[in-house]
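ugh ok so i messed up the first submission bc i forgot one of the chains. this is the corrected input, ALL of the components this time, i swear. 225 residues overall. if the numbers dont match what u have on ur side tell me asap before i send this to the collaborators (the ones from the other lab, u know who)
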Amino acid sequence: RKEVEQDPGPFNVPEGATVAFNCTYSNSASQSFFWYRQDCRKEPKLLMSVYSSGNEDGRFTAQLNRASQYISLLIRDSKLSDSATYLCVVNFGGGADGLTFGKGTHLIIQP
Amino acid sequence: SAVISQKPSRDICQRGTSLTIQCQVDSQVTMMFWYRQQPGQSLTLIATANQGSEATYESGFVIDKFPISRPNLTFSTLTVSNMSPEDSSIYLCSVNKGLYTEAFFGQGTRLTVV
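and heres the new structure output, hopefully the right one now
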């Protein structure tokens, strides 16, 4: 079973605030994890990969909890340009099967 | 990374007709995939395009409706056959450059069936 669950939101957050999303996945043997960003009417673009030790890229921090089967994304000092849909993505096994996408979390940063 | 050119970017088609979408990659890749994204929904994998053999379809998708070609390691086509309004969606070509790695996407084809 391949399932990726996300809170669809929308999350309405004031500019400059910190916001966090979680995502749960169904298969403990999952191999790789990603956060993608999708702007309206555009294709998804990789925001960051998620590593077991957690990783940070500027204002963005991703963490993986294999025991509880969830990943998280933290955005600090949010900008208006962060408004988008954030897709949690899991590779359940080997890449040859493609990726499984969550339904996305819609984020709106308000001035 | 990979640069993926997908066309057409959009089309409006009559029901009962077929549309072929092309996907060209700037380098050889083993794994190419076709996804569908219906309005307000996330991406659903249609099939894996295999070079030199028949595509591998996900549950709910069949070759007669979505024939796929993969003549070489840089190119693939997806045909949406005998279209109905329910096929109105965005269709996305995607590639992975290795196992467990991220996917890169074409710009998508926005299809409207009237």
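quick check: Chain B has a mean pLDDT of 93. that seems consistent at least. Residues 46 and 59 of chain B are 8 Å apart (CA to CA).
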